[in-house]
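From the shared-data thread, chain only:
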Amino acid sequence: MAAAEPKPPTGAAAARRLARSCWSAFWDYETPKVIVVKNRRLGIVYRAVQLLILLYFVWYVFIVQKSYQDSETGPESSVITKVKGITLSEHKVWDVEEYVKPPEGGSVFSIITRIEVTPFQTLGTCAESMRVSNATCDSDEDCVAGQLDMLGNGLRTGRCVPYYHGSSKTCEVSAWCPVEDGASVSQFLGTMAPNFTILIKNSIHYPKFHFSKGNIENRKGGYLKHCTFHEVSDLYCPIFKLGYIVEQAGENFTELAHTGGVIGVIINWDCDLDLSASECNPRYSFRRLDPKHIPASSGYNFRFAKYYKINGSITRTLIKAYGIRIDVIVHGQAGKFSLIPTIINLATALTSIGVGSFLCDWILLTFMNKNKVYSHKKFDKTVDAPERGAGPGLCASEPSQQDCVLTDARGLAQL
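Structure, as tokens:
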């Protein structure tokens, strides 16, 4: 009796079947199959999803966002400003040369509305300000000679001297004397400031589209000498009253003039270059930029000094200025029709309509009562026709029948 042949290991057969199925999944071709399901509710859901996707792309993507255009943001821009007007304080008349800092007429400038003046300061020794930490003293032992407080006004001499007023004492310092808190005088310049006029000359350029425009209209007869800005009738007369700017920013002028603040003038150039150049117009908006609700950092002020000589000695007047700082900020975006973004967004729209089919297939195969029947109808598997010489339904290249799939003569499963 011949010896029985050894059976191949079970693990090897399983590995072979797994490898065959992996190769089959790699080389097989899948094609969609159309099944008409006569279900009114499912049909309504399908058409509703398609309609919503179509409305989204037509209305929002193409009409609102104008995604058929090539766009450019952040135009090249120049800003020139000029302030005119005079005002009064308790002691003098102020003109533009005195209350506008800096005077160059750039996109950022300050209009002084209140000052605290410390006149006739000279280099010498005097009492330190009581606002400085550890400046108060009772005797010379409380003051360290040579100590320099970075938040103070000068170098301490080591002496404890009477303060400028009252019975208190502070450490003596070598500095510009008297210090600011000891002899400052406040003056308010904001009485006539709301009537100051500010010319804001702005021009922009979009290099991608070779498009340039400015915010001043070319008119004859001294048009700019007699006009002020109006959003409807005088859009191209960029002469604003300071009171109008503060009002449009939602601020109280008197309060702002006392504490100071920063107001932003935002010029927005959104241009559809598929239309004529006359349709590209500037839009102005105004808002306060500094955090007015934070007491520690609210308001706006700065210091500067004027120097002169009296009897051969250098003297200065220290001025702490509170004012309204104007920041002119230019934004914009231009768009023009381009074939490439149009094709990309149309392809995206057509592809997205297929979401309706995916959603309805998921409902059909998951929640419908006959989901197993639908699944059987939707997914079919076919094999190539058997080789010549093999009978119907037989696998000519594989002796084992367990891995064969029976098909009819046309190679398609019948529904």
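Residues 389-415 have pLDDT under 50 and may be disordered.
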